[in-house]
Amino acid sequence: MSQKADVSYNSYVSYENGRHLPSLDIALKIAKSQNVSVDWLATGEGSMHSTSNRVSKQDKELMASIIKKLKNLINELDDDDNEIRPDKFAELCFHIYTQCLEDTSEEHINKEIDNVIYLAKVMGG
Predict the structure, then answer these.
(1) Which of 49-53, 54-58, 68-72, 78-82 has maximum average pLDDT?
(2) Which of 25, 30, 33, 41 has the fewest CB atoms inside 10 Å of its own CB, making it the most exposed?
(3) What is the pLDDT of residues 13-45, one digit of tens each?
(4) What is the C-alpha to C-alpha distance for residues 11 and 14, in angstroms, rounded to an integer?
């Protein structure tokens, strides 16, 4: 399965065992290669099999909103040490996305972003 998704075996196993979260692009590759929905892959809920390999308009809008808000927040930080690697940024966006599938309100998205920023500060970046 890892080869079909163009992901290393060790990475695939770490995602499957919950040790690491895949970036958004990897999650999309895995979902597409296994013909499962991204929602099901992220949450285990809803229809397992994708009726389409296309991302819904609602999912695109949700992810775009999360990316924009997170980028703006990071840009507002004064400290040069607050730069974030693109792969970590993608992991944060994917994590926030999975937390916002049920409630896509601005308030909930902002709360989840605040939670991630808080955890990053507590864990030292």
Answers:
(1) 68-72
(2) 25
(3) 888 888 888 887 788 888 888 778 777 777 777
(4) 5
Q: How far apart are the first and last CA of the chain?
A: 33
Residue-wise DSSP of 18-39 = TSSPPPHHHHHHHHHHHTB-HH
Amino acid at 95: H
* Residue 77 φ/ψ, nearest 5 degrees: -70, 135
Report yes or no: 70 and 92 within 8 Å, Cβ to Cβ.
Answer: yes
**Contact (CB, 8 A) for 31 and 75:** no
Between the CA atoms of 110, 111, 112 and 118, what dihedral angle is there, to the nearest 10 degrees? 110
DSSP category for residue 44? S
